[in-house]
Design a protein that fits this description.
Strand content: over 45%
CATH topology of the largest domain: Immunoglobulin-like
Distance between the termini: 136 Å
Strand order of the largest sheet: 4-9-8-6
Number of helices: 1
Number of strands: 30
CATH architecture of the largest domain: Sandwich
Low-confidence stretches: 251-259
Radius of gyration: 50 Å
Number of domains: 4
């Protein structure tokens, strides 16, 4: 017995001799048929959740390790998988070939739950290094939203895998807030000043503030900053600040009986504030008795700037509507 494995068609001869010494020969030919050249074409990588079509060629009969028996096999691997194709030619010879299909992950795209924001909101698609396409055709990683609406984004990672997300955004307006004090300058002995603001319904805060009332004595001397804050029904807030200057208002003979007129600061350089309880006439006289100012004035705190006047002591006279006269002295020193 002879075991042979020819690689090409070969004829083999055998010679036999019997016990009598007689010899004879015989021949046989073995034909070697070629193996089929089996190939697989298709993608070497897919995105998670996608399918790949593998196509076999070079044989007459096909058998896939995944179970198919045609030249084309549709596969949906969830992890990298090697597929084997065995092909049989018309001469009955078979050969096998393998193909590895990798699985690339999708980008994780999550814009978050639907949201209501004040003024604007920044959407972030994350996945740095990817490419982006928003519903407004912008291509940055983030999108600043200033109008209510539905927004979506497609994200493609470096592997070419794509995912998307959509979000509904409601943009509420930030309120325009204004603070309004009834006065801007006060003496520590003045009655509380009223604070108001728009839109109505906000809250005041700051030194000397209780509700919508400002107490100069409690706040103390100096420039006091008060803040009005308002929050809309949609939860959007803004604030506005105002200042009230609090003075001790203690000058030489500054206040006469009945508290008819207050001057502050005193001394000053010709710029000062005066406070009167009612409407009336204000007159200012120099130490020589010359009138340097005269005007009708309204009740409350009023600023006043005199023209060019000399240093010295001046008499301030206020006559109310009932012809009651109140006087005070003021020193001007440049």
């Amino acid at each position: 017995m002879e075991i042979v494995a020819p690689t090409t068609s070969t004829t083999y001869t055998v010679t036999g001799t019997d016990a009598n010494g007689c010899v004879n020969t015989a021949t046989t030919s073995i034909t070697v048929n070629p193996l089929p050249t089996v190939t697989i074409s298709g993608a070497s990588a897919i995105c998670a959740g996608s399918s790949d079509t593998l196509i076999g060629a070079g044989a007459s009969i096909y058998q896939w390790s995944s179970g198919g028996n045609t030249s084309m096999e549709i596969v949906t691997p969830v992890v990298p998988t090697t597929y084997t194709l065995t092909g049989t030619g018309i001469n009955g010879c078979s050969d096998s070939v393998t193909a590895l299909v990798n699985v690339n992950p999708l980008p994780v795209v999550d814009l978050g739950p639907d949201i209501s924001a004040c003024g604007s909101f920044i959407l972030n698609a994350m996945n740095a290094g990817s490419s982006y396409l928003w519903s407004d055709n912008s291509t940055a990683q983030t999108l600043t939203v200033t109008n209510s609406g539905i927004y979506s984004v497609q994200v493609t990672n470096p592997s070419g895998c794509m995912d998307a997300d959509t979000i509904s955004v409601t943009i509420n307006a930030i309120p325009t807030v204004t603070g309004i004090p009834s006065v801007t300058t006060m003496c520590t002995t003045d009655a509380n000043a009223t604070l108001s603001g728009t839109p109505a319904g906000g809250t005041w805060s700051g030194p000397g503030v209780t509700g919508n009332s400002f107490n100069a004595s409690t706040a103390g001397l100096g420039v006091q900053t008060l803040t009005y804050t308002y929050t809309s029904p949609q939860g959007c807030s803004d604030s506005a600040s105002v200042t009230i200057t609090v003075s001790a208002c203690t000058g030489i003979d500054e206040q006469m009986a009945n508290g008819g007129i207050h001057i502050f600061p005193n001394p000053n350089e010709g710029q000062f504030n005066f406070s009167t309880p009612t409407n009336g006439t204000l007159e200012i006289f120099s130490s020589l008795g010359q009138i340097v100012y005269s005007s009708q004035v309204s009740a409350g705190n009023n600023p006043l700037t005199l023209g060019t006047v000399d240093n010295g002591i001046y008499v301030i006279r206020f006559t109310d509507m009932q012809h009651n006269v109140h006087q005070s002295k003021m020193t001007i020193q440049h």
